[in-house]
Amino acid sequence: MVVSCESSTLKVANQGKTEEIDGFDIILEDTILFPEGGGQPDDRGTINSVPVLRVRRKGRKAIHFTPDPFIPGAHVHLCVDWERRFDHMQQHSGQHLITAIADHLFKFATTSWNLGLQDSYIELDTPSISAEEMREIEQVVNQKIRQGLAVSVRVYEEGAPELRMARTRGLPEDYHGPVRIVTIEGVESNMCCGTHVRSLAHLQSIKLTFAEKGKKNKTNLHFVAGSRVLEYLGACLEKDKALTGLLKCGVEKHVELVDKLQKSLKLSQKNELNLIRDLALLEVQKFKLLEPRPSLLSLHRREEIPDFMSIIVNEINDVEVTIFITMGDENSSGQMCLAGKPQLVADLAPKLSLILGGKGACKGNKFQGKVTNMSKRSSAEKLIQDTLNRLRDEEEVISALNQEKLC
Fold it and tell me: What was the pLDDT predicted at 193?
């Protein structure tokens, strides 16, 4: 039965942006939909065929967000997205099992966990975990699954002595009332609000995938359980198949061949850098041989070559020479560098950015950034040349006036 219905908004992430959806917060007399909590995401489902987009907990109440309203007092029919629910049950029960075995074998305490879309991880209170330790945990965990140990749930009132025997990281501050204890037969009891399988046999298997350094000297141990193991295996086989096609060798040769390709790539990159430097030095040499030497060095390369611009600026090393270099497709986007007298660069940089549709930053006597309208390069070069001509004329006028005063 519907207890209350209030207008509300739901914030959702969409392609890196946060959007708000108008809807209604529905509180029911009871529910089969799990609100997020204990590291487990919330359920999805329907109320009278209306989708439930979020379920959150407030004290002992579950608040269902729906796009349509319901009349308080009305009797409604709930359905749960069982595929999502069962997946969460497998991952959550798998977490309990891994937590218990890691603690039993190596005294690795679990401080938190995260149930993700592809895989999940357990935060262990240890700075590292070895491959041997991971293999032993995985072996024992899957032994327990093959034994088909029962998973049971019991509810106790606050203060019951049985609660002191259960593993817990503490109850939420706003929660008061009966407490659920989830027990894996012969393994452990854990204070938990989440959903779980009835037997470890329902987990099918667990695979520990990798460990990584976590926060505050802890380790994140990643895993997949149940149906996700087959999905993970299928994804790995697809990658192997794709690599076999690209590398033209069997799976057993993949690592060896990739290692050779990486070494070859590093050598090629080193040779490329040497060629780029030679090319840049050649451009500098050509410029220095010009008589009289121009006040502006303007270059454009269609290819975007890393370090090319920096090498030329460093080799010229003369603020009296204004350097304007661009790289990229003439009708598209690319990179720009302007170097010379600091004040001149500071004055010209925003004007050039406006013409070329770019942005960047000044550092000392150099401005470097990205541009989006390389087709306007000739206009940008003309602005630089006109500015230099104007400054030269002003200097000549000032010099002439000074000469007259001396006479």
Answer: 86
Considering the domain boundaries, does residue 356 fall inside one? Answer: yes
What is the value of pTM for the model shown?
A: 0.73
Tokens for 326?
């661009």
Judged by phi (left if over 0) then psi (alpha if -120 to 50, else beta), residue 379 lies in alpha
Q: What are phi and psi of 346, to 5 degrees?
A: -65, -35
Task: Give the C-alpha separation, 95 to 197, whole Å.
Answer: 12
Helix (H, G, I), strand (E, B) or coil at 294: coil
Q: Which residues pair with 315 in a beta bridge?
A: none
CA distance 107 to 102: 6
Residues 285 and 237 in one domain: no
Cβ 296 vs Cβ 388: under 8 Å: yes
Torsion of CA 66, 72, 77, 81, to 10 degrees: 30
Q: Cα(129)–Cα(135) distance, rounded to whole angstroms?
A: 10
| Of 228, 221, 237, 236, the residue nearest 135 (C-alpha) | 221
To which residue do tokens 């306007």 refer? 376
- Do 317 and 398 fall into the same domain? yes
Dist CA 363 CA 59 (whole Å):
55
Alpha helices (runs of H) in 248-330, residue ranges in sequence order: 254-288, 308-316
CATH code of the domain containing 392: 3.10.310.40
- Residues 79-94 have pLDDT tens digits of 999 999 999 999 999 9
pLDDT in tens, 162-218: 787 787 766 666 667 788 899 999 999 988 889 999 999 999 999 999 999 999 999
Domain containing residue 97:
85-242
- Torsion of the alpha carbons at 378, 380, 385 and 389, rounded to the nearest 10: 130
Assess if residue 265 is contained within a domain: no
List b or e across 175-194, with b for residues whose CB sees 16 or more CB atoms inside 10 angstroms.
eeeebbbbbbeebbbbbbbb
Instruction: From 80, 101, 118, give the residue that closes a domain.
Output: 80
Number of domains in the chain: 3
Report whether the peptide linkage leading into residue 69 is cis, meaning its omega lies within 30 degrees of zero: no
**Same domain assignment for residues 91 and 113:** yes
Does 92 share its domain with 213? yes
